[in-house]
Amino acid sequence: MPRMSDAEKQKSHKRIIDAAARLFRTNGISATSVSDVMQAAGLTQGGFYRHFPSKEDLIAAAFERSADELLSKTQRATQSETRADYIATYLSLAHLKNRGQGCPFAANGAEVTRLGAGVRAEASNAIDRISSMLNGAGDPAADDGVATLALLVGTMTLARLASSDAEASRIIDAGRNAVIELDQGTD
Prior knowledge:
Elements: H1 6-27, H2 34-40, H3 55-72, H4 79-90, H5 93-97, H6 104-112, H7 117-134, H8 144-161, H9 165-186
Helix pairs in contact: 1-2, 1-3, 3-7, 7-8, 8-9
């Protein structure tokens, strides 16, 4: 069997991470097997360990990719536009219904707390990066970005627990109002 070129290996590696990022957010980490990820990436399960030493290493890479996706959508705008766009997109019914492309904290936060230090370190790094972008005061030492992120994640988590779209919308509206109140308190 011919060896895979470095370029092909990198493409396969990216497909695995992309598939894992989507599946972990859609189905949950514990409910998604390595076999599920490899199948979604169009690869055989046997090739997994050529790319990752363990499932936890894949989870860390997938969490990083998920955070990168969230931030990449807003990088070209000014800081205030970035923040406003991010919040509007985050607190939407589209995000609620499409968890596979959404926030890794709202989709997998509780599961990540039970995983190893590498995954938790990646999640902590993502918190720092996203909360920095959400920091309305512009002061890197301020905690309003962290508070905003906490409101967003909590809002989306509760909205996903709602028994109807109407209840989910009410929760999202309440979260949006809470962010506005937080912003008014930090001006």
